[in-house]
Amino acid sequence: MSKIKLNLIIISCLLIQATYSMAVTDESQFFDLVSRGNQMDWIGKRLTVGWTKDRCIAFESMVINKVPDIRYSRLVLPYRKEANRPQTGKRSHRRRGERKEQPGRQKEPFDPRSIKIVTADILLQHQKLIRDNYQLQLVEENETICWRDSKLWSIKPRNPNRNRLFKVWIDSETGILLRVEIKGQRNQWLSFLTQIQFDPQSILEEITQFKALEAGDKKQESRFVSRSEAEKALKRELILPERFPSGFKISQIELMDLSPTPAAHIRYTDGLETISVFQNQGRRLSRRDRRDRDLDSHDKDGNTVVPDKKRGRRNNIRKEKISDVQVTIMDRTDVHIYRWTRDSVNFTLIGSLPESEMAQIVESFINNP
Questions:
Q1: How far, in Å, CA of 306 to CA of 357, rounded?
Q2: Which is nearest to 152 in space by CA: 172, 125, 122, 128?
Q3: In three state form, how does the secondary structure of 139-185 look?
Q4: What's the whole-number average pLDDT of the chain?
Q5: What are the two backbone dihedrals, phi and then psi, of residue 326, each rounded to the nearest 5 degrees?
Q6: How far apart are CA 104 and CA 311, in angstroms?
């Protein structure tokens, strides 16, 4: 071997080692800074904006971080409508000749709580998965966000088939996440903090208000259980897929008391992406369900399609066969939703991975004996 070739090999090895050392340094610096922000008492408002090619969504939340274990956000805008408004006794009558609103044009209801916001808790809780599945890189050492000095990191999936890019701006002094951008093929999300305060009295007042609202909220708390506890409640074994996308692990199993049978909500995560699987025992079709089924038609390729002009349906709902099982597919602002029934068990799969991967997950569930 010539000296020139040997020197080139040595230089290449040194460059690879230096690049790896820089990457590890960046990752450690990133998580150390995030941990610092999670150990401080502060409040602020988070504005979140999401948009696709045909829709834009925005909402604002009050966020509080109180060491050691008080971390929450509550919706500020848009305001929640009162569920139990007093009835006035007046009825609304449509005038003769007035056009009736087309059900198919109604906007899709949106729940801000369904959006997975990247927070310090998520980053720290799934630190190992993020290190394994994502490449973290310090892009800018000093950048001003919300009138504060910050560091900009990019977080890219190591899997070349994934297209979601995360950008995170972290306060250089406090470690608070000031801004997060998420860019995918179908949509983009942006969230940033404003009106950050460290005043103990303001934090105490916000906690008091939160506890008052929490006491009046009759919503049932989530019950996170082990696999054996879920199977005991369901009176059967959980049905899991033969294989799942690389890098994903089960993070939580939630037991939900739904009528007439309980349901299991299984969450998979690779650190930043989340896939939810709901399953519960099937039931006999009601008259309305049978009528909905009978309204289905087929396209020229033989796939079942739900008409968008009947019963207010939208053209982003379709039906296809996967492994000889009819699956209903719905495209929402941030996710794909797949629903099907197999061996008297109802399944719902929700995730934002590419459709090809989502279909493979469905197929894996169906083919699992």
A1: 23
A2: 172
A3: EEEEEEECCEEEEEEEEEECCCCCCCEEEEEEECCCCCEEEEEEECC
A4: 78
A5: -75, 125
A6: 8
**Which structure tokens are listed for 230?**
């879920």
- pLDDT tens by residue, 9-55: 555 554 444 444 444 557 999 999 999 999 999 999 999 988 877 77
Contact 166, 181 (CB under 8 A): yes
Question: What is the 3-state secondary structure of 294-324?
Answer: HCCEECCCCCEECCCCCCCCCCCEEEEEECC
57 vs 108: CA distance, rounded Å: 11
| Cα–Cα distance for residue pair 276/339, rounded to 1 Å | 12
Tokens of 254: 């939630």
Tell me the CA distances in angstroms from 291 to 86, 286, 294, 296, one per residue in order. 34, 9, 5, 9
Provide the token pair at 352: 């934002």
- The predicted pLDDT at position 350 comes to 94
Question: What six digits make up the tokens of 12?
Answer: 């290449």
Burial of 18 (0-12, 13-18, 19+ CB in 10 A): exposed
Rounded distance between C-alpha atoms, residue 318 and residue 346, angstroms: 18
| Eight-state DSSP code of residue 113 | G
The CA–CA distances, whole Å, from 149 to 99, 167, 181 equal: 55, 16, 17
23/266 Cα distance (integer angstroms): 33
Whether the Cβ atoms of residue 120 and residue 34 lie closer than 8 Å to each other: yes
